[in-house]
Amino acid sequence: MAMLPGVARSLGVSVPVAGHVISAYAVGVVIGAPLATLIGARLSRYRLLLALQAMFVVGNAASALSPGYGTLLVIRFLTGLPHGAFYGVAALVAAGMADPARRGRAVAGVFVGLTVAHVVGVPLVTWAGQMLGWRVVYAFIAAMELLALVMIARTVPAMMPDPQGSLLRELGALRRPQVWFTLATGAVGFGGMFCVGTYLSTVLLGVTGVPAYVVPLAQSLWGVGMVAGNMAGARLVDISPALAVVVTLVASTVMLCLFSVCAGNMVLVLIVTSLMGGIIALLPALQTRLMDVAADAQGLVAALNHSAVNVANASGAWLGGAVIAAGYGAQDVGWAGAGLSAMGLVIFLTGLLAQRGERHASDPV
């Protein structure tokens, strides 16, 4: 996203058309998460991680060498394919290596990179893209991915494949209602964060009236909130994943409402922006909840969690744009985002009630 204007200029297309490159990656994530997991159902998680990471290396290196817009569009779609499966499998590996009492913190540790990226990576890539060009940035990313591939090969235990692992067993998780309730919670509830995040600069520049140099500061504050929220949420997950989901969605709804209320004041909106970063705690909470409800078919649902997040990304950004296009103020994306968080909370609470009913129905008379 930070390199979008440079990509558009270099390839001779408009910024909205260049934005389709981002959408192509997101579509790749949604499709690739279940597909890659099912194809790799008989592989050990160690080998699957290596294969998925190798796809990242090739995809980002090819992006740097892409000759034109159409080629880049296809390459970014292909590079998105391993994304969801990689994070899903990595979360399962981390949870399996940790003490059960620290499972939430292990899963949250996998997502540290996502949170730190918003503190350091976004400003760095913005600068590097402006100074060196987007192709150099993609080449650098490919080099970092290659380093990560070596580190995975050297440090992750070489686990044996599950002899019972199969395509049918993984698909069997989709017969469990709680899996669908949890995925729907992420697909809807997470949309609130993206509804506001997509139009954060628009609100800051057009409503709050901050100087342009404050926007990267706000992005970094958002990232700091993500790091803190990820760490705090991990401890809550170790107490109860369901409780962590409920608390995060309640806090998300409140923070997104406050964003709209405080949008006219620079100090207040920056404080609220940093607090909104804590919504990221929903990711490890949902990931761990899925581990609890998927029984012995965890690979597919762990990957589908990231498909759900990308659905939330697309729908949240669309809803925010629709609010602005309808003539409402840009700050009103906060109210729309709060509505999505509240709907996610309702879905999750409905799932908990349904689960309680299932337990009562199975109790001996």
Automatic annotation (TrEMBL):
PANTHER family: CHLORAMPHENICOL EFFLUX PUMP RV0191, PURINE EFFLUX PUMP PBUE. Keywords: Cell membrane, Membrane, Transmembrane, Transmembrane helix. Residues 1-356 form the Major facilitator superfamily (MFS) profile domain. It is a multi-pass membrane protein. The keyword Cell membrane applies. It is found in: Cell membrane. One of its GO terms (cellular component) is plasma membrane. This is Inner membrane transport protein YdhP. InterPro entries: MFS (IPR011701), MFS_dom (IPR020846), MFS_Efflux_Transporters (IPR050189), MFS_trans_sf (IPR036259). Coiled coil: none annotated. It comes from Komagataeibacter europaeus.
